[in-house]
Amino acid sequence: MTDQTVDGTNDTNDAASDFDTVDFFTDVSLVDDPFPYFDHLREQCPVAHLPHHGVIGVTGYEEAHEVLRNNEVFSSCNAVTGPFPGFAHPPEATDDMREFIAENRAELPMSEYMVTQDNPTHQDHRGLIMRLFTPRRMRENEEAIWQLADRHIDEFIDKGRFEVMRDFGQSFALLVIADLLGVPEEEHEEFRKQFGALPTVDGGETQAFAQDPLGFLVTRFTQFVEERRRNPTDDIVTQISLAAYGDGSVPPAEDVARMASFLFAAGQDTTARVITAALHVIAERPDIQASLRDDPTRIPNFIEEVLRMEGPVKSAARMARVTTELAGVQIPGGRRRSPGR
After folding, report:
1. Strand order in the sheet with 47-49
2. CB of 46 closer than 8 Å to CB of 329
3. How many CA atoms lie within 13 A of 159 on its CB side?
4. Contact present, 56 and 329 (Cβ < 8 Å)
5. Which of 249-256's residues contact partners 24+ apart within 8 Å by CB, and which partners?
6. 252-309 pLDDT, tens per residue?
7. What is the rounded distance in angstroms from the CA atom of residue 74 to the CA atom of residue 122?
């Protein structure tokens, strides 16, 4: 059964036709609710050519797993931006892009950060930091997190209203990860200013957002790393600063700073958005709110579902290093793929 408009046309078929030509990367109609588009894409997939930007869509589980895990065939060099902006002077059609990507990856945004690096560099950097975020470390910070939440609520509770993302989620998440990484408390206010994470000032205007927040982070964390190497303390920045690769070599201070900066930026951004989405659901669904109040043990599962359904990332991008085939679809070297939900 399908819906009919007053003029007798078929809304369902019209939507499907639009989805066949829509530009996923630029069409604002997909921002609020991209899931019908993903449902449509899954009907064409597991792998299909999309109509724009030379992108191939991947929605099958096994196929997406292959794209995300096979580092010999697929590169993370465009993980941050997908098909934009691309290389300034891409080569002619070729079956092997490995040498070209290695020599030109610095042209792509955030090429110095872990998220866009390939193995073995990615594996080396990931190995340095993953062992530092342990359940024990999280438990040690739990009391400080409770206190931080109370202080943030005190900043706006008397006003009777607040903007969730700006006044609570963004600032709270930023300072939690700052405390976890060992950013000195006297630096916290400056970090909030740089990330636009201060409450609204009189008149409702917000602090200006830093033009290059990651640049600020790299500069500051490089200073922290150099200081911790001279005078170690009991924090994660010290542990990262003193950590060595598997071969015993110690990474340059700026490389360590980029790892810490990525952890800082990625951790606070995702958390702030999840907090905002969770409170949005609770505000609009009094039944869910009542259920969580009655049984707080349901909160972790609720957060997991919010992250799954309302998370900020709806696709992931990779670039083919070499011409390959996936689910019967040929993917030429250099073609971007976006495994989506």
Report:
1. 47-49, 55-58, 336-339, 318-320, 74-75
2. no
3. 14
4. yes
5. 251/125, 251/128, 253/222, 253/225, 253/226, 253/229, 254/218, 254/222, 255/125, 256/128, 256/221, 256/225
6. 998 888 888 888 887 777 888 899 999 999 999 999 999 999 999 999 999 999 988 8
7. 13
322 with 95: CB under 8 angstroms? yes
The pLDDT score that the predictor gives to residue 280 is 92
Q: What is the mean pLDDT of residues 62-76?
A: 92
Token readout for 287 is 């039944």
At 28, list the tokens. Answer: 């604002």
Which tokens in the block code for residue 119?
């193995």
Ordered alpha helix ranges (H), the chain:
11-21, 35-44, 61-69, 98-104, 121-130, 135-140, 142-156, 170-181, 188-194, 213-230, 236-242, 253-284, 286-294, 299-310
pLDDT in tens, 246-264: 788 888 998 888 888 888 8
Map tokens 């590169």 to a residue.
75
Q: Which residues pair with 48 in a beta bridge?
A: 57
Residue 331, classed as helix, strand or coil, is: strand
CATH number of 130-310: 1.10.630.10
Q: Of 309, 299, 219, which Cα lies nearest the Cα of 260?
A: 219
Whose CA is closest to 336, among 46, 41, 74?
74
Instruction: Give residues with Cβ within 8 angstroms of 289, minimum separation 6.
Output: 282, 283
- Each domain of the chain, given as residue ranges in start order, spans 12-109+316-339, 130-310
Q: How would you label 192-224 residue by residue, b for 16+ Cβ within 10 Å and e otherwise?
A: bebbbbbbeeeeeeebeeeeebbebbbebbbeb
